[in-house]
Design brief:
Number of helices: 7
Largest sheet: 9 strands, mixed
Radius of gyration: 20 Å
Structural class: alpha/beta
CATH class: Alpha Beta
Distance between the termini: 51 Å
Order of helices and strands: EHEEEHEHEHEEEEHEHH
Helix content: 25-40%
CATH topology: Stationary-phase Survival Protein Sure Homolog, Chain: A
Number of domains: 1
Number of strands: 11
Oligomer: single chain
CATH superfamily: Survival protein SurE-like phosphatase/nucleotidase
Length: 263
Amino acid sequence: MLVTNDDGIDAPGLHALAASAVAAGLRVVVAAPAGEASGAGAAVTTSRSNGQVPITRHELPGLDGVPAYGVAAAPAFIPYAAALGWFPEPPSLVLSGINPGANLGRAIMHSGTVGAALTAGRFGVRALAVSLDYETAWNDAVPHWDTATGLVPAVLDLLSDTPEGTVLTLNVPNLPADRLGPLRVASLAARGVVQGRVEEDGAGLRVGMVERTERIEPDSDVALLLAGHPTLTALRSVTEDPDLPLAELLAAERWQERWDIRR
């Protein structure tokens, strides 16, 4: 199995996730961006030298004997490369994380953590993105990686019973395990806990974050996480929208007239 992230090969959340996979008896390869790559979504951009993407072997603390690579690329490139021949066998499972910050709502399309998992799913590989709500919701200075890793084995058992290519995202409150609420299946909120704001200041664009003020959907990942529940959501990658009557729209007379003119 492949363990990756978007925070880089030196990130403690990555090491914790890989260690939990090893403890579960899984054969693990770690490959992660050489540096910080948050917000990369499902981009497969790389840095190249002489036409090659540089990779560097690493020894990770507490993971003796586990192959580990820093890759000069965006997170999603790593499962992309793994599925297309980097290793002798493509991974049967991809874990992405643990991200130090929740990935919530529809804004997860911009998350490199989730983007790596969705890319694995596109190749028919089961994948799990794991995020710890360390930055936004809980005023605890200590990241409880063990709380998140404690949930991973049960979620992987669940994932093994799903069709190939299934992608799940797990968000965990940054709390000691004995203070967690029950794991809940959650829908994606329209927005996350905070939302972006972009302003022009004369010299360029200033990007910031503001607290959301609108009502939070009660069964959404945002609401449940704020109530102390770990949340689990099944994700579907990019696909066509069968509910949009596009053929009917194109068949309308006014569109046929325009099409005839352009031909």
